[in-house]
Specification:
Elements: H1 6-26, E1 33-39, E2 42-48, E3 51-53, E4 58-63, E5 69-77, E6 84-87, E7 89-91, E8 94-99, E9 107-116, E10 119-123, E11 130-135, H2 140-165, H3 171-198, H4 211-232, H5 236-251, E12 257-262, E13 267-272
Parallel strand pairs: 3-11
Antiparallel strand pairs: 1-2, 4-8, 5-6, 5-9, 7-8, 9-10, 9-11, 12-13
Helix pairs in contact: 1-2, 2-3, 2-5, 3-4, 4-5
C-alpha cells in the first residue's frame, strides 16, 4: 500500500475547500444582498446588510449618485409594528441610513427606494423585503480560530477523501486530524461563538432545531464513526463516505435555520431564516 499521494490529493483538496468558501460567501441569509444600480449608462454596486454585530445601529449604505435621494422603510420582524420611513444622508461618497439596534437575534425587515430624477430604483418591497438579523459582538480571538478550524477541517476531509479513494496509508491519520479539527472548531469554539452572538451555547439537538448546530453534530458523528471503524479495521470506504457527508453538510447555507428573537415572548427561538 502506498504511503500517500499528496501531489494529487492536496491540490484537489484545496480546490474543494476554495469552492466551499466561495459557496458559503455567496449563499445563506446572513451575507449582504448584492445589488447593481444602473443609471445613465453606469453601473453602481451596493451591498445591503443582512447581519449586524455589536451594540451600534446597523448602517445601510448606497453609492452616492449625483442628484440621488433615497429612503429606507423598515419595521421589527416578526411584529405588527407600523412601517417607519427615514431618509438617507450623504456621508463622504456614500448615502447612509441606520436601522435601530436590536437585541441579539432581533430582526428588522426593510426595503429601499432610490430616486434618480424622474426614475426610481426599488430594492425590496413590503411583499418581498430584505431581512437583517442583529447579534452580539463575537471577539476576533474566538471567531477567527473558529472559522479557521472549520475550513481546515473541510480541507483535511477533502484530502482524506482523495487519499482514501487511492487507498493510501495516510487516510487514517487524516481521519483523526479531521475529527480533531471539527471538535476544536465546532464543538469547542462553536458554542462560544453562539453564546457571544445569541446568548446560548447550543441551540441544536436535543434542545432546539438550529440547523447550523445540527449539521455540525452530523459532521462530527460521521467522522467519529469513521475513526472508530478504522481503529478496528482499516476501511477506506467509511472515510470516503464521511468526507462525502461533510461536503453535503458544508453545502447547506450557513444560518439557514437559526436564532430569532421573539418580541412577544421576549426570548430567542429557532426559526427559518430569511
Amino acid at each position: 500500500m502506498k504511503k500517500h499521494n499528496f501531489k494529487v490529493s492536496i491540490p484537489l483538496g484545496i480546490l474543494l475547500m476554495l469552492i466551499s468558501i466561495i459557496y458559503q460567501r455567496t449563499t445563506g441569509p446572513t451575507y449582504p444582498k448584492r445589488v447593481t444600480i444602473q443609471h445613465e449608462g453606469k453601473a453602481y454596486k451596493a451591498k445591503l446588510l443582512r447581519s449586524h454585530g455589536g451594540e451600534s445601529d446597523a448602517p445601510i449604505e448606497l453609492p452616492m449618485i449625483e442628484g440621488a435621494k433615497a429612503t429606507i422603510t423598515f419595521k421589527r420582524y416578526p411584529t405588527n409594528d407600523e412601517w417607519a420611513t427615514k431618509e438617507f444622508t450623504q456621508q463622504g461618497d456614500k448615502l447612509v441610513a441606520t436601522l435601530p439596534h436590536q437585541p441579539p437575534a432581533g430582526k428588522h425587515t426593510y426595503f429601499v427606494v432610490m430616486n434618480l430624477g424622474e426614475e426610481s430604483k426599488v430594492i425590496g418591497s413590503k411583499e418581498d423585503p430584505i431581512y437583517i438579523r442583529f447579534k452580539g459582538d463575537v471577539p476576533d480571538y474566538i471567531l477567527g480560530p473558529h472559522i479557521f478550524f472549520m475550513f481546515f477541517a473541510m480541507l483535511l476531509s477533502s484530502i482524506a477523501l482523495f487519499e482514501a479513494i487511492q487507498k493510501t496509508e495516510s487516510y487514517f491519520k487524516l481521519t483523526k486530524l479531521t475529527l480533531g479539527a471539527l471538535c476544536i472548531g465546532g464543538l469547542f469554539l462553536g458554542p462560544l461563538v453562539q453564546k457571544f452572538a445569541f446568548g446560548v451555547y447550543w441551540a441544536g439537538f436535543p434542545y432546539d432545531n438550529d440547523l447550523t448546530d445540527n449539521k455540525l453534530l452530523v459532521g462530527v458523528l460521521v467522522w467519529a464513526i469513521a475513526y472508530l471503524v478504522n481503529l478496528k479495521r482499516k476501511t477506506w470506504q467509511v472515510t470516503a463516505l464521511a468526507a462525502a457527508v461533510l461536503m453535503v453538510v458544508y453545502s447547506i447555507p450557513h444560518s439557514m435555520q437559526g436564532s430569532q428573537f421573539d418580541y412577544e415572548k421576549g426570548q430567542v427561538i429557532t426559526t427559518e431564516d430569511h
